[in-house]
Amino acid sequence: MAEQQRVVAFDRLGMSDLAKVGGKNASLGEMIRHLSSEGVRVPGGFATTAFAFHEFIDASALRTRIDAALAKLDVDDVKSLARAGAEIRSWIVQAPLPAALERDVETAYGQLLGQSSNAPVAVRSSATAEDLPDASFAGQQETFLNVIGLENVLHAVKEVFASLYNDRAIAQGICPRRRSALRRHPAHGAQRPRRRRRHVHHRHRIRIRPSGIHHLRLWLG
Q: How many percent of the chain have pLDDT more than 70?
C-alpha cells in the first residue's frame, strides 16, 4: 500500500502492512486474502492508517498541545493523570477530521454497506504496537459496536483516536516520563458483521456480533 493512503480495504492488506494499519487490521487482511479460497468467510471492512491519524493530529494543531500536557504530567498523581487524559481526549474528539479523510471514509463506508444503508458496523482500534515480547497494550483502546450512519462512524473514529490517550495508555507507554522504546501509532478499522452458518445447534443462520476475538468490524483505520 502507498505510504500516504488514509483508508485501505481489508482485502488489500497483509502482515507487511502492520506498521501502517496495526496488527488486527493486517491480520484480517491476511485472513481474507489467504483463507477465502478455502471457504473461510471473514467479514469485510476497511482500515484507516497511522498516516491518517498523524495527519489529523497535525492538521488540528494538537501535537504540540498534547506533548506539552504529557511532558509536565506526573503519572503517579492519579488525579492529575485523569484530568490530563480527559482534556487530551476532549481536544481530539472536538477537532474536525481532515476533509480528505472524511471523503475517503465516506467512500469506503458506502462501498462496504452496498444496498444495506442502515447496517450496523463496528469501529475498533488496531495499534501498531500491542503485543510485543516485553510489553502488551492490547485491549486498551475503545471499541464501538452497532454504529449506524456515516456521521456516527466518523465520530466513532475520533473516539477511537482519542482512546490512545486513556489514562492507562498514558501511564503505561505514552507519557515521556514513562516511555520505553515503544511508540504506538493508532490505526483503526470498521467492519460489518455478516450472516454465517453456525456449525452446531441445528446450523441456524445467525447474525454474529463483533467481538475482541473475531475482530468483526468495519475498520476505519
A: 71
